[in-house]
């Protein structure tokens, strides 16, 4: 049976992950933007990858469930990488929460049903989840205990109206969701982790750099140990490790890949 690599969100990071890990596998690419999806599928197919493309709305349980079923029909779902998301410069708070928070919950739930024994998944969160004021223990418990259908109705989440705050809360919640999901994935003999990228030169990252917060982002980069903006390949390398056999004892963890920005700010 073919091994299947599922990549949800095929912008800069998703495409880099597919290119790094997809050789010799059936690669299922999924995205909401059909133009982006077809461009990624065409590029990878032209380079010899075995690609299937499917439109998906990660905020829809029906759409994500159908994606998971298609992945299972293609073969053994051995690797899942979820990179889809909206940034504060792209959308209002409600849309950010629907995609960045609910979308992750649905992917974790639906792919827990089809991930193969020995398989692994990664969720792309953000260094923002490490930088915003931490959630209280009560808020963390509410995130863990809420079903995907009830997640956006949790009081402290439903009250969020500022895009940047909604983004930070969603990304911190992603890290918590992955911790909670690791038990369920583990019952199938599979692992799930998150990656928290810093400032990465993707189309979304470039949009943020060009926004009113761009000056602050460049200042953070300047004081970091790496002293540079990250590349999609930096994230693909981290995903390759977490999805591969060398990380067989790592699950429910978050890997901060930000060039040292968070460490510099805390120092």
Keywords:
Rossmann fold; seven-stranded parallel β-sheet; 17% strand; 267 residues; 7 strands; globular; single chain; alpha/beta
What does this structure look like?
- The protein is an alpha/beta fold.
- It has one domain: NAD(P)-binding Rossmann-like Domain (Rossmann fold, 3-Layer(aba) Sandwich), CATH 3.40.50.720.
Describe the biggest sheet? 7 strands, parallel
Sheet with most strands: strand arrangement: 3-2-1-4-5-6-7
Radius of gyration of CA atoms, rounded to a whole number: 17 Å
Helix % is 40-55%
Distance between the termini: 50 Å
Q: How many DSSP H or I helices?
A: 12
CATH topology: Rossmann fold
Shape summary = globular
Counting helices, strands and paired strands, the structural category is alpha/beta
The CATH architecture can be given as 3-Layer(aba) Sandwich
CATH class: Alpha Beta
Ranges where pLDDT stays below 50 over 5 or more residues in a row are none
CATH superfamily: NAD(P)-binding Rossmann-like Domain
What is the string of SSEs from the N terminus onward? EHEHEHEHEHHHHEHHHEH
Topology:
Blueprint lengths: L2 E6 L3 H10 L4 E6 L2 H13 L3 E6 L5 H14 L1 E7 L10 H20 L2 E10 L3 H4 L5 H9 L9 H4 L4 H24 L4 E7 L5 H7 L4 H10 L8 H12 L10 E4 L3 H6 L1
Parallel strand pairs: 1-2, 1-4, 2-3, 4-5, 5-6, 6-7
Helix pairs in contact: 1-11, 3-4, 4-8
Characterize this entry briefly.
By secondary structure, the protein is an alpha/beta fold. About 50% of the residues lie in helices and about 15% in strands. It is globular and about 50 Å long.
């Amino acid at each position: 049976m073919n091994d299947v690599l599922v990549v949800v969100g095929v912008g800069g990071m998703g495409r880099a992950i597919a290119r790094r890990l997809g050789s010799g596998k059936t690669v299922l690419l999924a995205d909401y933007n059909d133009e982006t999806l077809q461009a990624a599928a065409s590029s990878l197919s032209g380079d010899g990858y075995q690609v299937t493309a499917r439109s998906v709305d990660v905020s829809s349980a029906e759409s994500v469930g159908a994606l998971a079923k298609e992945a299972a029909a293609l073969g053994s779902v051995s690797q899942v990488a979820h990179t889809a998301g909206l940034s504060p410069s792209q959308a209002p708070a409600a849309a950010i929460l629907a995609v960045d928070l609910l979308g992750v919950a649905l992917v974790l739930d639906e792919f827990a049903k089809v991930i193969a024994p020995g398989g692994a998944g990664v969720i792309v969160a953000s260094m923002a989840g490490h930088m915003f004021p931490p959630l209280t223990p009560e808020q963390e418990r509410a995130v863990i205990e809420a079903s995907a259908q009830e997640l956006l109705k949790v009081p402290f989440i439903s009250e969020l109206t500022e895009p940047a705050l909604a983004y930070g809360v969603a990304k911190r919640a992603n890290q918590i969701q992955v911790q909670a999901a690791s038990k369920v994935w583990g019952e199938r003999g599979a692992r799930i982790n998150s990656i928290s990228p810093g400032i990465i030169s993707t189309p979304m990252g470039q949009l943020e750099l060009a926004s009113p917060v761009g000056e602050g982002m460049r200042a953070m980069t300047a004081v970091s140990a790496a002293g540079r903006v990250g590349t999609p390949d930096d994230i693909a390398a981290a995903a390759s490790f977490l999805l591969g056999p060398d990380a067989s004892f790592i699950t429910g963890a978050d890997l901060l890949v930000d060039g040292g920005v968070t460490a510099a700010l805390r120092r």
